[in-house]
Amino acid sequence: MTEPRIGVVGIPGKWSTEALADAVEARTGFRLVIDMGRVTLDLSAGSLMYEGVDLCSLDGMMIKKISEVYSPHVLDRLEMLRLAEARGVKIFSRPEAVLRLIDRLACTVSLAAAGVPMPATRITECPQAALQAARDFGTAVFKPLYSTKARGMTLIEGSDPAAADQIAGFAADNPVMYIQQKIDLSGQDLGMVFLGGAYLCTYARVSQSGTWNTTIHSGGKYAAFEPDAALVEMACRAQAPFGLDFTTVDVALTDNGPIVFEVSAFGGFRGVKDGCGLDAAGLLTDHVIARVTA
């Protein structure tokens, strides 16, 4: 058969998107980076058009990034991709699977249902209940439902006289408040990577700046990490309900045992490269080509 035509949904010019497009091009000779902000869905024509290409004519698509910033509008972009899937285009990971991870609360509920250990968490729209949560937790992390790399997260001390005002400020932009007990990360947390549901590797994110979180966005650095079998089993159990083709499970090691913060909708290529010395783009592309051509 001819080489498959596989598009990459992502952010043009971004390293991970272009790395994935490079890997596809090197293996198939075809390159198409798809900016969902410029895609048009025509239901009457049954087409999903991007720069003159009907995406429904492709053999496959990989979703590396659906938007620069997470918001409820991202869900609409994923719904648009479902038309191409209905027309026979194989999409990795499936839009329906990604939909369940864009909203932090949807991810958390699925993890709780699977019995995965997590930080103490409360969700409420009530300011008084939010203040009580901050007091009960001592220090609470207030998290937007739609965000990545700790953007928009706010630390609130329950004993702070200004806590009620801080909660009101957070609630102004986030009426549904997602509140977690702050966990002592001891300077690092883990990204446990899975490809096609199988464990691939683990990297650590190590704080370099003394900030409360370890994200690279806040100055953290990647390092190698070798987990034991029990930790791999826990992370595998966390990602299993979502059916993703490539993902990272965010794990912290605490005095009371490991906990899971979240499962990533897209996974991190840079951590795999810098922390594990592996080519995530190439490995994912090989995985996708095998399934598209099967």
Model description:
This protein is α+β, with helices and mostly antiparallel strands. Helix content is 34%, strand content 26%. The protein contains nine helices and 16 strands. The strands form four sheets. The protein has a five-stranded antiparallel sheet with strand order 14-13-12-15-16. A hairpin with a 2-residue loop joins β4 and β5. The N and C termini lie close together (11 Å). 36% of the residues are buried. The model has no long low-confidence stretch (mean pLDDT 93).
Brief overview:
This protein is α+β, with helices and mostly antiparallel strands and 294 residues long. It has nine helices and 16 strands.
Give the low-pLDDT segments: none
What number is the mean pLDDT?
93
Overall 3D form: globular
The helix/strand series, from N terminus to C terminus, equals EHEEEEEHEHHEHEEHEEEEHEEHH
**Beginning-to-end CA distance, first to last residue:** 11 Å
Described by its quaternary structure, the protein is single chain
Radius of gyration: 20 Å
How much beta, percentage-wise? 25-35%
Order of adjacent strands in the largest pleated sheet: 14-13-12-15-16
Number of helices: 9
Instruction: Kindly name the structural category.
Output: alpha+beta
Tell me how many strands there are: 16
> How does the major sheet shape up?
5 strands, antiparallel
Q: Can you give the helix content as a percent range?
A: 25-40%
